[in-house]
Design goal:
The chain is α/β, with parallel strands linked by helices and 721 residues long. It has 24 helices and 21 strands. It is globular, with a radius of gyration of 26 Å.
């Protein structure tokens, strides 16, 4: 993989003489206070402006400021006219548009397509502060405000919609957001490298239409350049021997470096089929066009598979997809930030607070991360329902230990309301810190979608010692009472390091630890690319052992997904039986939500499995579609809720499992119905036990059990960040 230009090596733009802004301005008055006559770059976002490294617009804004540019913020503008988009004047260089930290449709609607009443990224948690498909609407208004200003779109909404994609909310395949937004460039993935280079090149006088060679960007062409070599996507995804126990992406055309024998020199190398040699730097893969994938779900699954094969920055090629008479061109993914670069990004002069314009009104998403620290980016887990890999990449980017310590000291010394408790030291996956392939050569060549499924790759370094050292160091800092780990963790990785589990359980769990088996049955687990329950039991045993040794009463809270592709009614029934046997009663459950670009979304739409070669006669997988079956699967997870019993009785009888209806311990649900339950519109609900405390003699009567009222500690998870 070629080296990237260091992020902070550019010559600062002339405006650096204005220095650092206490807060990036949101009004002309604030610009005047800073002595600015104009902004060089204006960022438009669907989130409230929180000057914190967990908020994308703050990160991009501060990174650009460090390059010498004057950056203004338009946060949650009134989108019904262009007036708010003109409030800071015309930017000298470009508009940068993002929906915010979440896809606006996922932020706005539930898995049942119902409108949410709240928005965690808005002051006061008020819903309705951003439009549906925010990137499209904001882009239109920017064009209305200043039509000749370059328009760059990015963030997770644009990133996950960069090619033709299935849209769950309209139940159809939509065009690339780049086409509909009429933007000049789309930035996908972690955007620091791309945005900085775009800004400097525009500042140097280069036309935006000529900026077409930056990794991690997409743009529109009429025709592909003649000097490039075109490769049909069907050549990439050739049929081959499928070994479902080794590599779900195994192909004849290009084998996985992770599972091939070593060379004489002792290194594992990728082997290619014999075909005319092409230069990756000047070759692109032609994917089926928008019109084709819109009509043909099988072609859609094929296109999804090819895109996911081309996500490793070490070997990915450009992708091209026809949309009518235009070509959407995707350059290869951006190169990961180095530890030094990531440290500097996180240590820019953030105030770590919402903008003062909100008058102290609470922003729920900020309150959640106010006293937390992000120690890494990326995830190599490859869970098919999650979009982290598609956005942040599968190569782990870790901060240095010293940088994390400095941030915790900053929180301790400067963030109002700090009580000595760090709420989370983590990232997308808490225990992937500093984990990577043992060989850079193997890493650059590998095409596996996951380093841990169906088993942990032998070439993966699973050493948790750096993370253990970090935990020990931060919990010993003066003024720090407790350091918690609240991010999700891979328990299949954790069990490889008993010392890590001991450190975690003894010092960093606040009574409950959330983990995500997601299911108990092999059918859905294989489609999720999640480990089997044997690994869960191994981790549970270690968790309970070290909890006893520490003299602590602590509980695992497992999360599960209803209605995931590959899940049958019987699978959900068996999961419900497992939950009852183990005494779990979920207060909140998650129904699968098909997010754009996720592999599981391709399964949902096509009813094919893109983890293997996609053909017309490929495996057809069961997909729970329709409100009725999705509600049934959700009801199985909440088998204890009397309002669900009529639906479950009907289903169990239809499945030939009426033997599970009755009043004995072996039954799933009773045959009787409490008054006031099970009928739509009757307001009184049946009280249930809190999640997490199994109903055992030892736990009955404890706080949070047996129907005693308490605030839930659980929350719905969104797998897109």
């Amino acid at each position: 993989m070629p080296a990237a230009k260091p992020l902070f090596s550019y010559r600062p733009y002339w405006a650096h003489r204005f220095g650092t802004a206490p807060l990036l301005p949101m009004s002309r008055e604030e610009m005047d206070d800073l002595g600015w006559d104009a902004c060089d770059i204006i960022l438009v976002t669907g989130d409230a402006y929180v000057d914190h490294p967990s908020f994308g617009m703050a990160v991009i804004g501060r990174v650009l400021e460090a390059q010498g540019f004057r950056v203004g913020i338009i946060a949650q503008p009134d989108w019904t006219s262009a007036e708010d988009f003109m409030s800071l004047g015309k930017p000298n260089l470009f508009f940068g548009v993002t929906a915010g930290n979440m896809d606006s449709m996922i932020n706005r609607y539930t898995a049942d397509r119902k409108i949410r009443s709240d928005d965690a990224y808005t002051p006061g948690g008020q819903g309705g502060s951003r439009p549906d498909r925010s990137v499209l609407v904001y882009s239109q208004r920017c064009r209305e405000a200043f039509s000749d200003t370059p328009l760059i779109i990015g963030g997770i909404e644009a990133s996950l919609r960069r090619i033709a994609h299935y849209d769950y909310w309209s139940d159809k395949v939509r065009r690339s957001v780049l086409i509909d937004a009429k933007a000049d460039l789309l930035v996908y993935g972690n955007g620091e490298r791309q945005v900085v280079e775009i800004a400097h090149r525009l500042a140097a006088g280069e036309a935006v239409k000529d900026i077409n060679d930056i990794r991690g960007t997409a743009f529109i062409r009429k025709h592909c350049p003649g000097e490039w070599t075109e490769i049909d996507s069907r050549e990439i995804d050739q049929p081959g021997k499928i070994d479902r126990h080794i590599d779900p992406y195994a192909r004849q055309a290009e084998t996985s470096a992770c599972d091939k024998p070593v060379s004489a020199a002792g290194e594992t190398v990728v082997q290619f089929q014999r075909r005319p040699k092409t230069d990756r730097a000047t070759s692109f893969i032609r994917m089926p066009g928008y019109e084709a994938v819109k009509k043909d779900p099988v072609l859609y699954a094929h296109a999804s598979r090819v895109l996911h094969l081309e996500t490793n920055p070490g070997n990915a090629r450009a992708l091209v997809q026809r949309h009518g008479d235009r070509e959407v061109w995707l350059n290869p993914p951006p190169l990961p930030l180095t530890t030094k670069e990531l440290d500097r990004v996180f240590e820019l002069p953030y105030t770590r607070q919402p903008h003062r314009v909100y008058g102290g009104e609470r922003v729920p998403a900020y309150e959640m991360i106010r006293f937390s620290v992000n120690i890494m980016r990326g995830c190599f887990g490859g869970c098919t329902f999650c979009s982290i890999t598609e956005h942040e990449g599968r190569i782990i980017q870790s901060r240095s230990e010293d940088s994390v310590v400095r941030e915790i000291e900053t929180i301790r010394d400067s963030v109002p309301g700090f009580t000595g408790i760090i709420s989370d030291v983590g990232g997308p996956t808490a225990n992937m810190y500093r984990l990577a392939c043992k060989s850079p050569k193997i890493e650059a060549a590998c095409r596996r979608p996951s380093c841990v499924h169906p088993g942990i790759c032998s070439n993966l370094n699973t050493n948790h010692d750096p993370l253990i050292r970090l935990y020990k160091r931060v919990r010993d800092l003066p003024g720090i009472k407790k350091v918690l780990v609240a991010s999700g963790l891979r328990y299949d990785l954790a069990v490889t390091s008993p010392e890590y589990v001991r450190e975690l359980v003894s010092h960093h769990v606040g009574g409950y630890l959330k983990i995500a088996p997601e299911h108990t049955e092999e059918g859905p687990l294989s489609k999720m690319m999640k480990p089997g329950m044997g690994t869960y039991y191994a981790f549970k045993e270690m968790f309970e052992k070290y909890s006893r040794e520490a003299g602590k009463e602590q509980y695992l809270i497992p999360y599960f997904i209803a209605a995931h592709p590959g899940t049958t009614d019987e699978d959900m029934m068996n999961l419900a039986l497992w939950l009852k046997r183990n005494g779990f009663r979920a207060d909140q459950v998650q129904t699968f939500l098909p997010s754009p670009m996720a592999t599981a979304t391709a399964m949902y739409h096509s009813e094919r499995n893109p983890l293997r070669k996609v053909k017309r006669d490929s495996e057809v997988i069961p997909v729970p579609k329709g409100l009725k079956i999705r509600r049934l699967h959700k009801a199985f997870l909440r088998y204890h809720d009397a309002n669900n019993w009529p639906l479950l009785r009907e289903a169990l009888k239809r499945m030939g499992r009426a033997d599970l209806i009755g009043n004995g311990k072996r039954h799933l649900i009773p045959g009787w119905q409490p008054k006031g339950t099970g009928v739509a519109g009757e307001g009184k609900t049946f009280r249930t036990q809190h999640t997490g405390l199994p109903d055992t003699p030892a736990t009955r009567g404890k706080r949070g059990s047996g129907g005693r009222k308490r605030k839930s500690r659980t929350s719905s998870r969104n797998h897109q960040h």
